[in-house]
């Protein structure tokens, strides 16, 4: 299988150098590699969390779409779409919401930052916090897991969201007893992990310290660069290149040799005004040709709309059938073909005709699991576990394909033991069926 790479940008503002260097440029590079299937999208549902200005959302969607294409994205090669054109995304988001611990969301940086600010202001800790902001990482998990992305190129600010996505995916896989979701890995461009803005803090729409990528043309770019905050060392005085964010921005756009030369010039006393001039020239070299394409695209929004519609159709070829499989897995099935205990012999297993483990809580609230056969029939029902991790270890032991090491026979009945305790009992005559299903699972 090809490596799936996926990333998105929230459509709540004008794309800036940080978005470009942290996400767009590395993603476009990744999409040209052999063996890569790339999924890039406009995160417009995410935008609603931060912005309630419809004009701004609409404008930003256009600008960000035009930016991706102007920066070299080949919309034929990659799957390029708008999040809100895929109804499966909010549906998956809800399923994931139902398996995500509230405690996990309590730890999210963006939420914690809002709470800290409220505490400083001595107002209610949740003042101004919407449920959108609170559960934002779950929507992001839905974006990533919908396409089972292996790699997610993002800036450093998104690392925690990726960790949460992995947690949520694991929880779903465990609860519904299948490898539904791949655990994604974050991909960080180390040189630009966090591009600083005009004031040295992370370049961000929220801090109003951005350098716009294309909007406003070369004039706006230059005006922003001239506002980059520097120290007061005069021309001729040696500068601390490593400590200057102007140098950090330059380095993100230059080859190692160019960056080394710029650094030496600063250390030898290059004036900040001249340094800004050199930075403008370096940026223009990379961005000017793209800016022309950007202007052409912005003048033809209907062309952008066509590209996005085609992208949505391509994306839904994957998201619609996958969502159908997930609906089956959680039990949102047609009334005519119930699976699991008492299933009709014709019914297919939730995993599309594959044997699978299903975890659940019994009436006492204890943890148990079943192994279902290819027809959805019950092959094994576990004992109860107070600790879900012990249940998980028992499933792992069974999946590992060493049934004989777990098995003891007492007449017509068989017992399976893990970690010194019996985890399930069954009639010995059903062992061949169990063996077959476990062998099938081990081979998957
Ligand atoms: P957003 O829109 O804030 O930023 C888009 C991408 O740009 C990166 N970025 C930066 N990189 C380096 N330096 C900076 N100063 C800088 N500012 C922004 C971000 O790290 C990000 O990669 N939640 C996401 C959007 C999203 C998403 C997803 C991303 C929604 N679903 C699924 C990946 C996968 C966000 O708000 O990014």
What brief labels describe this structure?
444 residues, alpha/beta, Rossmann fold, Tyrosyl-Transfer RNA Synthetase, PH-domain like, 3-stranded parallel sheet, 3-stranded antiparallel sheet, 17 helices, 11 strands, 48% helix, 13% strand, elongated, binds tryptophanyl-5'AMP
* Strand order in the sheet with the most strands: 1-2-3
CATH superfamily of the largest domain: HUPs
**Overall shape:** elongated
Quick one: how many beta strands?
A: 11
Helix residue percentage: 40-55%
**Main sheet: strands, sense, barrel:** 3 strands, parallel
Mean pLDDT score:
92
In CATH's first tier, which class of the largest domain applies? Alpha Beta
Contiguous uncertain segments of 5+ residues: 341-351
Named CATH architecture of the largest domain: 3-Layer(aba) Sandwich
| Total count of helical runs of at least 4 residues | 17
Residue share in β-strands: 5-15%
- Please report the distance between the alpha carbons of the first and last residues: 14 Å
Q: Provide the gyration radius in Å.
A: 27 Å
SSE order in H/E notation?
EHEHHEHHHHHEHEHHHHHEEEHHEEEH
The hetero molecules present are: tryptophanyl-5'AMP
Q: What class, by secondary structure content?
A: alpha/beta
Total domain count? 3
């Amino acid at each position: 299988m090809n490596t799936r790479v996926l990333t998105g940008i929230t459509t709540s503002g004008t794309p800036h150098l940080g978005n470009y260097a942290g996400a767009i440029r590395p993603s476009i590079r990744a999409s040209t590699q052999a063996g890569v299937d790339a999924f890039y999208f406009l995160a417009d549902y995410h935008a609603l969390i931060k912005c309630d200005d419809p004009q701004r959302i609409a404008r930003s969607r256009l600008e960000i779409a035009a930016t991706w294409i102007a920066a070299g994205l080949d919309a034929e090669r990659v799957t390029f779409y708008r999040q809100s054109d895929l109804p499966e995304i909010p549906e998956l988001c809800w399923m994931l919401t139902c398996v995500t611990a509230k405690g996990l969301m309590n730890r999210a940086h963006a939420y914690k930052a809002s709470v800290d600010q409220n505490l400083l202001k001595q107002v209610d800790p949740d003042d101004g916090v919407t449920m959108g902001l609170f559960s934002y990482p779950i929507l992001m998990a839905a974006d990533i897991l919908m396409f089972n992305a292996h790699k997610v190129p993002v800036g450093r600010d998104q690392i925690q969201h990726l960790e949460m996505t992995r947690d949520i995916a694991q929880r779903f896989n465990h609860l519904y007893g299948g490898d539904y979701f791949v655990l994604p890995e974050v991909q960080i461009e180390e040189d630009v992990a966090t591009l600083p803005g005009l004031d040295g803090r992370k370049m961000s729409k929220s801090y109003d310290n951005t350098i716009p990528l294309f909007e406003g043309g070369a004039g706006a770019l230059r005006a922003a660069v001239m506002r980059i905050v520097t120290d007061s060392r005069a021309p001729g005085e040696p500068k601390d290149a490593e400590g200057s964010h102007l140098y950090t921005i330059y380095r993100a756009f230059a080859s190692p040799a160019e960056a080394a030369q710029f650094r030496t010039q600063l250390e030898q006393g290059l004036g900040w005004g001249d340094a800004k001039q050199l930075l403008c020239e370096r940026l223009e070299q990379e961005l000017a040709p793209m800016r022309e394409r950007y202007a052409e695209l912005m003048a033809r929004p209907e062309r952008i709309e066509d590209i996005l519609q085609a992208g949505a159709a391509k994306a839904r070829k994957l998201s619609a059938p996958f969502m159908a499989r997930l609906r089956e897995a959680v039990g949102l099935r047609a009334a005519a073909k119930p699976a699991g205990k008492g299933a009709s012999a014709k019914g297919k297993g939730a995993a599309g005709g594959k044997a699978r483990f299903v975890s659940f809580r019994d009436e006492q609230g204890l943890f148990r699991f079943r192994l279902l056969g290819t027809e959805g029939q019950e092959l094994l029902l576990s004992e109860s576990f107070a600790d879900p991790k012990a249940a998980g270890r028992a499933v792992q032991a069974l999946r590992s394909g060493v049934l004989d090491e777990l098995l003891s026979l007492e007449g017509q009945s068989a017992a399976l033991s893990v970690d010194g305790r019996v985890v399930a009992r069954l009639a010995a005559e059903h062992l061949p069926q169990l063996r077959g299903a476990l062998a099938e699972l081990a081979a998957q």
